[in-house]
Amino acid sequence: MVTLELVEKLRDRTGVSYEEAKKALEETNGDILEAVINLERQNRIKTPHNGGYYHSRSSQQASQQTAVVTIANREGSENGSGFGDAVKGFFRWMGRIIHKGNTNNFTVMRNGEKITSIPLTALALLLFFAFWIILPIAIICLFFGYRYSFEGPEATPSVNRAMDTVADAAENLKNDIKNEINK
């Protein structure tokens, strides 16, 4: 039985028209592999550009191998499974991450006044290259009344609430230590 899904699958894999795909599937009782082989034998589809057998080979096995390679090549290029596609995808992903990092900022405030604001990309680079300096300084600054937050289109209120909770905890700890010293 030939379904619309089978016709679409054959069209996607071979690039033939709807009518050609439907006819080829009807001739093979819905067998996609046989339909590809028949289309190739009739010169309706091209042979694989990066390997495989050509339709002019006479054996049935060669035709089936060609059809399998054709389907595999088309699926591979559609799914982006090639190394070059993976590299391109990685760089696109990195570009999106860097763009988000440049449009969102890490803000340092003291007594409600903004001291500085730097892009998250710069903060990430600072943390990567100077982790052992930046992190202790940030923690020490919490005890001197500094507060941190994130600003920008990707900033989430829950993260800023967590940062405020940490700053409040540092302030409470500082006050507890002062009270113990004064007793």
Helices and strands in order, then pairings?
Layout: H1 4-14, H2 18-27, H3 32-41, H4 60-79, H5 83-103, E1 105-110, E2 113-119, H6 120-142, E3 146-151, H7 157-182
Antiparallel strand pairs: 1-2, 1-3
Note down, in words, how this protein is organized.
This protein has 183 residues and is mostly helical. Helices cover 66% and strands 10% of the residues. The protein is built from seven helices and three strands. A three-stranded antiparallel β-sheet has the order 2-1-3. Helix 1 (4-14) crosses helix 2 and helix 2 crosses helix 3. The longest helix is centred in the last third of the chain and has 26 residues, at 157-182. It is rod-shaped and about 95 Å long. The model is unreliable at 53-59 (pLDDT under 50).
Largest beta-sheet characterization: 3 strands, antiparallel
SS-based structural class? mainly alpha
C-alpha Rg (nearest Å)? 31 Å
Query: How many helical elements?
Result: 7
Q: Which H/E pattern describes the elements? A: HHHHHEEHEH
Mean pLDDT: 83
Short description:
With 183 residues, this protein is mainly alpha-helical. It is 66% helix and 10% strand. The protein is built from seven helices and three strands, in the order αααααββαβα.
Key terms for this structure?
rod-shaped; 183 residues; 3 strands; 10% strand; mainly alpha; single chain; 3-stranded antiparallel β-sheet
